[in-house]
């Protein structure tokens, strides 16, 4: 069967496209819905190939290109790489998205927010192994303000914990692992902590409990949503619709698992926005 491929429509009525390796990008979607409740959203979570953060740059790049191609085929007006790992690779590969469509990754807007937040010029970054190894957040921050000290720690166990539902504030296992990872960053006296993987804001209460109220947490998912809002506003591409938008979620593996995870994070929005969750075929 020949599938009809929607044209890329740079029109106000087209949807906002978001992708991640799993449910992390929902931290971006939550903020998009808050900022632009009437926009339609198309989401892709590559749950068959998660985690991305332990893979090589080449593999992440290959996956990212396929994710972007899939999202583009849905006929969107902007693409958000709501994945810190893809973004860390993407910032040094400018050709990842075509110039014919608006595109944002998470690193640049998140670094901007951290620079605006820090008072003592000591910023922590937590992310996947690939993200921390890339040094992308430190490079972005130093490109804005050279004398900010950046302390990065990879937290590879957090994505599997979150994808498996260990997200409650009193989850003993997640609290212990968070403490273990964050101890050296806390010791550096940072006043701002970048949650450089979009999954991490799902457990922000646990992270905040450990870091203390004096440390400002920056959600990379939310900052990407803010950036997308600014880009759409500037391009005059915000929808004119006055009714709530719809959401289409695609995953590359088990829709059940995704629905369960998504419900605990986006519960009401999922019900209110006529959401559908479908299995995606990304190998076209
Ligand atoms: N949400 C992804 C990120 O922001 C998780 C990466 C992974 O799949 O390991 O990095």
Brief write-up:
The protein is α/β, with parallel strands linked by helices and about 280 residues long. The chain is about 45% helix and about 15% strand. The protein folds into 2 domains: about 150 residues, Rossmann fold (3-Layer(aba) Sandwich); about 110 residues, Rossmann fold, CATH 3.40.50.
Assign the CATH topology of the largest domain. Rossmann fold
Strand order in the largest sheet? 4-3-1-2-9-10
Given as residue ranges, the uncertain stretches (5+ residues, pLDDT < 50) are none
Name the ligand types.
D-glutamic acid
H/E topology pattern: EHEHEHEHEHHEHHEHEHEHE
Q: Find the count of extended strands (DSSP E, 2+ residues).
A: 10
What percentage of residues falls in helices of 4 or more residues?
Answer: 40-55%
Computed structural class: alpha/beta
How are the secondary structure elements laid out?
Blueprint: E1 15-20, H1 26-35, E2 41-45, H2 57-73, E3 76-81, H3 84-90, E4 102-104, H4 107-117, E5 122-127, H5 129-134, H6 136-144, E6 149-154, H7 158-163, H8 172-187, E7 192-195, H9 204-211, E8 216-219, H10 220-234, E9 247-251, H11 255-272, E10 276-279
Parallel strand pairs: 1-2, 1-3, 2-9, 3-4, 5-6, 5-7, 7-8, 9-10
The protein binds D-glutamic acid (DGL).
